[in-house]
Amino acid sequence: MQSVKDHKWTWVRRIVILAMLLVIPLLLSSPRPMTARMVADSENGTKVLVLNYHKVDNMNISLSVLPEDFDRQMRYLSDHGYHTITPDDLYDSLEGQKELPENPVLITFDDGYRDNYDNAYPILRKYGFKATIFVITSFLGTQPNYITWDQAREMDANGISIQSHTVDHKSMTDLTDDQLRYELVESKKKAEQELGHPVEFMAYPTGTYNLHIAQMVKEAGYKAAFTIKYGNVDKASNIYALERVPVFHTEDTNKSFLERIRYTPIFERFGWIKS
User: Fold this and answer.
1) Residue 169's closest CA among 192, 191, 202?
2) pLDDT at position 33
3) Measured in Å, how far apart are the chain's first and last C-alpha atoms?
4) Quick one: which H or E segment has residue 145?
5) Closest Cα partner for 114 from 140, 84, 83, 76?
6) Residue of 181, 263, 164, 260 whose CA lies nearest to 215
7) Are 153 and 133 in contact (CB under 8 A)?
8) Do 80 and 33 meet the contact criterion of CB atoms below 8 Å apart?
């Protein structure tokens, strides 16, 4: 039998859900879509949308966005006035050294799958978009389902920034300090040797990290690091634990995409997901 306390919380949850159903459509009913710039607050500045993809192919698994869906999503961003930025742009903005364009979006991919080159790259070029791929350095040129360093160099020269996703993609909270240092330092060194320029950003494999790991990332020479923590980035963000909005294959991928980029700033505005 349900207790009085449980009954009370059931009604509280119902009220919260009802409020969301009533308020969110009103906030989204403007002819212009809800954008990061529209919900910026004076204290923390512009909220930057950082999208997180993995694969763009026809595998029909959660990590694989269909190429036609990816094209539709990029067209939406283009049609609605979003401007793609680089990790350096984001970092400089957070440091107060650069003004971002209206409706900034940082498009990121994790792992460095071959389909990023075969499928995502042509679509990004079609819309004149920049993007960033966090690569597992030991996989490039050795694993058939991942890009080669020649492909990485080609993309890097054409608006697709190549950054670190460590050497072997091991969960960092399972590693010793020596192992962590190897994953961070050697992946950075390898990518810099192959690309011919500094590599100063990384994404945590599987999203796992803690404050000690974040400190080691800093000591390894990275400017910033990205997690899979859900949310938009602003000046209140931890520079070594930057939020992203993941995009997955679902029953209605494009509807899910629109919900995520429209609702996330609203949730943050009411303090529902930003800690």
Assistant:
1) 202
2) 47
3) 35
4) none
5) 140
6) 181
7) no
8) yes
